[in-house]
Specification:
single chain; alpha/beta; Ubiquitin-like (UB roll); Rossmann fold; 3 domains; four-stranded antiparallel β-sheet; 19 strands; 25% strand; elongated
Length: 302
């Protein structure tokens, strides 16, 4: 479908870099990856050396993690392994800690956002995400089934092409290229939308209940991934939403839009659709066949 609404309209030397600090993680026993965390963290200023400038006292503080006293074993199933390193995917993950952190905090320290988790069991007993960990626990984490997560989305700023794809297929998808992370969280919570993002940190926001990390990098692969993961194939309704503003588009009489059309379009086209959200007019233009082929590729992809 074609949109038919013509509008006619000296820097100085580079600063010396300070050494970075390594994260608190190291190989555990028996080759299992190990993550260290602590709930009682103190901090002290750190003195670092900068070449030819003498010692510099940083005002920012670096947490001192107390010696980990406890350890649990995590088993992440299914697509949750996508968040792990290649070494972690082939084994259980040992998590060392002090205090009594919640399951959610431990998982997200390892890199698993809570929005992708369906069920957590400790020693074969189902527990909530805020359940505290104790030494020796065996924690099994199952991925969420997004097939029943709904068909209303809010998409982050890095996924504009995916947003247009979803609208092309008829799915209610909010997108702006200037959304902030807090705005996305607010919209998802207030309107019950699934947040789609390539930013894992966004999915760890405490208030966010429904969110999915898009694995693919290429837009064509991303739409296939979302259609498959959310079981959308049977709910596709192509060419029913505006690609620009997301509002529904409706058939309209030619006479109602004729003054806004190019003469050739007015002569050659008889069927038109109108977006009440942004007042654009759509018709079956020269690239309609290409859009139909794109929709067909999604429907036939397996």
């Amino acid at each position: 479908m074609r949109q038919g609404c013509p509008d006619g309209k000296n820097p100085g030397p580079a600063p010396t870099a300070l050494p970075s600090h390594r994260a608190a993680g190291y190989p555990g026993a028996e080759g299992c990856p190990r993550v260290v965390a602590g709930s009682d963290r103190r901090a002290k200023p750190t003195r670092l050396m900068v070449a030819s400038r003498g010692p510099v006292l940083l005002e920012s503080t670096i947490p001192i993690v107390p010696k980990a006293k406890h350890r649990v074993t995590f088993f992440f199933l299914g697509r949750l392994k996508d968040f792990l390193t290649p070494k972690q995917r082939g084994s259980a993950v040992q998590y060392a800690f002090a205090g009594r952190p919640a399951v959610k905090d431990a998982m997200e320290a390892i890199g698993i956002p809570h929005t992708e988790v369906e069920v957590v069991t400790i020693d074969d007993r189902r527990v909530p995400l805020d359940h505290p960990l104790d030494d020796g626990h065996r924690v099994v984490v199952q991925p969420r089934d997004f097939a029943d997560a709904g068909t209303r989305f809010v998409v982050d700023t890095h996924l504009g092409k995916l947003a247009r794809w979803l609208r092309l297929l008829g799915f209610n998808t909010l997108y702006r290229n200037d959304y902030s992370d807090p705005e996305i969280v607010d919209i998802s919570v207030a309107e019950g939308r699934v947040a789609l993002t390539r930013d894992r940190g966004l999915l760890k926001h405490a208030r966010l209940a429904s969110g999915y990390w898009v694995r693919a990098n290429v837009p064509a692969d991303q739409i296939h991934e979302i259609v498959e993961c959310f079981a959308l194939r049977e709910r596709v309704a192509p060419f029913t939403r505006c690609l620009i503003c997301n509002a529904e588009i409706h058939r309209t009489e030619k006479e109602a839009v004729a003054p806004r059309l190019f003469p050739r379009t007015c002569r050659e086209q008889e069927e038109f659709r109108h977006c009440r959200g942004c007042d654009r007019v759509y018709w079956r233009g020269s690239h309609f066949a290409r859009l139909q082929a794109l929709v067909k590729s999604v429907m036939n992809w397996a």
